[in-house]
Specification:
about 220 residues, alpha+beta, eight-stranded antiparallel β-sheet, 4 helices
């Protein structure tokens, strides 16, 4: 009886053993294929915000830092209205200016150590005009090659200018009135290859014209 039972077990093991091994191997191959497909899918998928490479974040941060302007850079003081830089129309002559020409009630002055960059363009010279010790105008001389860039910058601030027929003279007049009224004139002087920018007080010009009897 025992021998017969043992023989049945051997026959069953001989028949079922290969089938069990076949199903186990087949299942393992399916699991391996599924894992490989998932890995390839994850590799091909675009990176989400949560899966961004740390190195990419660091590089992006470096780029932003390079593009950020330095806070230590001091901007060049732009021309300001009504007046020029720290001087306003009608202001008396401040200390530190040197008179280079004087005639009647008017004098022309320069400032030692003047910053010659005006609205981003380097000038040859900057002179200040006073009438009866009141600031009335500034005369800034540039290279003639700066004429076009200056005209564009002034037009952006003052609007469309009045232009002479030969295109060598542009003028603007502010909409302000009283002490703040300002006039701007930009003209070429081909004889000495310069472009001269004159910013002046309209009110003082009219007062001077009235006092001298000359036309406006």
């Amino acid at each position: 009886m025992r021998a017969r039972t043992f023989n049945i077990i051997l026959i069953a093991a001989w028949i079922l053993g290969p089938l069990v091994i076949f199903f186990l191997v087949r299942r393992r191959l399916k699991l391996d294929a599924a894992a490989k497909a998932a890995a390839e899918k994850a590799k091909a998928a675009p990176k989400t915000d949560e899966a961004v490479d740390v190195e990419e974040l660091l590089e992006s941060s470096k780029i932003r830092r390079r593009q950020r302007p330095s806070s230590s850079a001091e901007p060049t003081p732009p021309s300001s209205f009504p007046g020029f830089r720290e001087l306003k129309w009608g202001q008396t002559m401040p200390p530190g200016m040197k008179t280079v020409h004087e005639e009647g009630d008017e004098c022309l002055c320069i400032k030692n150590g003047e910053d010659l960059k005006v609205d981003g363009v380097v000038a040859n010279s900057i002179s200040y005009s006073f009438y009866m010790n009141r600031f009335q105008a500034v005369i800034v001389e540039f290279s003639v090659f700066s004429f076009d860039s200056l005209s564009k910058k002034l037009s952006a601030t003052w609007g469309k200018p009045q232009i002479s027929r030969n295109g060598e003279r542009c003028s603007w007049s502010s909409m302000m009135s009283g002490p703040e009224a300002t006039e701007v004139l930009l003209q070429k002087r081909m004889e000495n290859r310069t472009a001269v920018l004159t910013i002046s007080s309209k009110q003082i010009r009219e007062e001077k014209a009235k006092a001298t009897g000359s036309p406006n």
